[in-house]
């Protein structure tokens, strides 16, 4: 059974940092691109970023709203994906989900995000 | 970035109703579109990808159509468990954005 479990959420001061983890099981992580998606309170889903698999050089891509502040990494040996968030702002307050991309090839993904975690809440407030 | 506009943003419906949600892209995206269902406190669920391919395990009352810039999600007969928010997502190579969502509530 495919499972994704996020952890690391909590209360952070503006300007602070936080690292989220996504522990995966039930599939071969190294074969998949992995995404992070967030949902701010009362708002819709917002794509945050993606990391490709090792066969595609672990290339990362980010939404403009987080580029330069957030970094996605992966450790396939630990079956985990990470989201390092720096210079946090109040508008980064959200539930953060990790999600697995379906079939991808050469940077393009064609089958949507087929498995998601339950999410972890990050609150940025003084 | 490619913008996705969903309509309506809110829908009040009854069990058994046929529902259609529209998603319009600001640029041509071929058939690179997915639809998700999201309930409060739950993980979003993939319903359809490639605009019209039903994800494994999703009931056949859900269907998707369209290509280019206009897409639709149809629920043929609304069931109690279908009351949720629905999102489209364009699967463009860069910055795969979501639509604003359509909340389906019980009339």
Topology:
The complex is a heterodimer of chains A (126) and B (107).
Chain A: E1 3-7, E2 10-12, E3 18-25, E4 34-39, E5 45-51, E6 60-62, E7 70-75, E8 80-85, E9 94-101, E10 104-105, E11 108-109, E12 113-116, E13 120-124
Parallel strand pairs in A: 2-13
Antiparallel strand pairs in A: 1-3, 3-8, 4-5, 4-9, 5-6, 7-8, 9-12, 9-13, 10-11
Chain B: E1 4-7, E2 10-13, E3 19-25, E4 33-38, E5 45-49, E6 53-54, E7 62-67, E8 70-75, E9 85-90, E10 102-106
Parallel strand pairs in B: 2-10
Antiparallel strand pairs in B: 1-3, 3-8, 4-5, 4-9, 5-6, 7-8, 9-10
List keywords for this structure.
heterodimer; A: 126 residues; mainly beta; seven-stranded mixed β-sheet; four-stranded antiparallel β-sheet; 13 strands; 0% helix; B: 107 residues; six-stranded mixed β-sheet; 10 strands
Question: What does the model show?
Answer:
The complex is a heterodimer of chains A (126) and B (107). With 126 residues, chain A is an all-beta fold. Chain A is built from no helices and 13 strands. In chain A, strands 2, 4, 5, 6, 9, 12 and 13 form a 7-stranded mixed β-sheet that branches. In chain A, strands 1-3-8-7 form a 4-stranded antiparallel β-sheet, with no helix packed on it. In chain A, β10 and β11 form a beta hairpin. Chain B has 107 residues and is mainly beta. In chain B, strands 2-10-9-4-5-6 form a 6-stranded mixed β-sheet, with no helix packed on it. In chain B, a hairpin with a 3-residue loop joins β5 (45-49) and β6 (53-54). The model of chain B has no long low-confidence stretch (mean pLDDT 95). The A-B interface holds A 35, 37, 44-47, 50, 61, 63-64, 97, 99, 102, 107-114, 116-119 and B 1, 32, 34, 36, 38, 42-46, 48-50, 53, 55, 85, 87, 89, 91, 93-101.
């Amino acid at each position: 059974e495919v499972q994704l479990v996020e952890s690391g959420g909590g209360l952070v001061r503006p300007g602070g940092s936080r690292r989220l983890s996504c522990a995966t099981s039930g599939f071969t992580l190294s074969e998949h691109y992995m995404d992070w998606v967030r949902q701010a309170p009362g708002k819709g889903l917002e794509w945050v970023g993606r990391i490709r698999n090792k066969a595609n050089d672990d290339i990362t891509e980010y939404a403009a709203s987080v580029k330069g502040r957030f970094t996605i990494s992966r450790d396939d040996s630990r079956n985990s994906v990470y989201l390092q968030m720096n210079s946090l702002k109040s508008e980064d307050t959200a539930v953060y989900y990790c999600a697995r991309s379906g079939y991808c090839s050469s940077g393009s993904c064609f089958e949507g995000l087929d498995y998601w975690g339950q999410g972890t809440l990050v609150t940025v407030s003084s | 970035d490619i913008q996705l506009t969903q309509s309506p943003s809110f829908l009040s419906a009854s069990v058994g109703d046929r529902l259609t949600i529209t998603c319009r892209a600001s640029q041509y995206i071929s058939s690179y579109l997915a639809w998700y269902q999201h309930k409060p406190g739950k993980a979003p669920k993939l319903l359809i990808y490639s605009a019209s391919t039903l994800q494994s395990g999703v009931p056949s009352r859900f269907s998707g159509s369209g290509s280019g810039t206009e897409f639709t999600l149809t629920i043929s007969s609304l069931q109690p468990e279908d009351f949720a928010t629905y999102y489209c997502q364009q699967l463009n190579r860069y910055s795969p954005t979501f639509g604003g969502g359509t909340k389906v509530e019980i009339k």
